[in-house]
Amino acid sequence: MSFAYFPAQAFATAAPAIPPKGAEPAPTPRIPPAHALRGLRRPRILARAARAAAAGYARKRDLPRLLPGFSPRDPSELMGKLRQVEAECEKARRAKATGYCAVRHVGILAALIAEAAAPTRTLRA
Hints:
Pfam families: DUF6477. The protein has helices spanning 44-55, 59-66, 75-94, 102-117, and strands spanning 3-5, 41-43. The chain is mostly helical and 125 residues long. It has one domain (3-14, 31-117). A two-stranded antiparallel sheet has the order 1-2.
């Protein structure tokens, strides 16, 4: 299997652990958009599909579908949440989990690519 590195800049931290029952969930990590893709290594076919999907990405249409109920306050919070969800997708893919959805994984990667490419847009656009 061949792998592709995503161009540019990566994420600072891995996805946080699940908090104990009754505890307040950990805050969403803040990742600058310019660092969202650094070090991200995924199978070439997944990377190609994500790049193609990023060309048609529309924040208003796609973000509510990918992150239901999440309303980010700034681009770094959005990138942190996307990175966190992508890490969960990658973990499920590697574990060959029955709940893994390649379409969702491609969508999350496409959102990461598109949002990293246009970090100056406002979140309410």
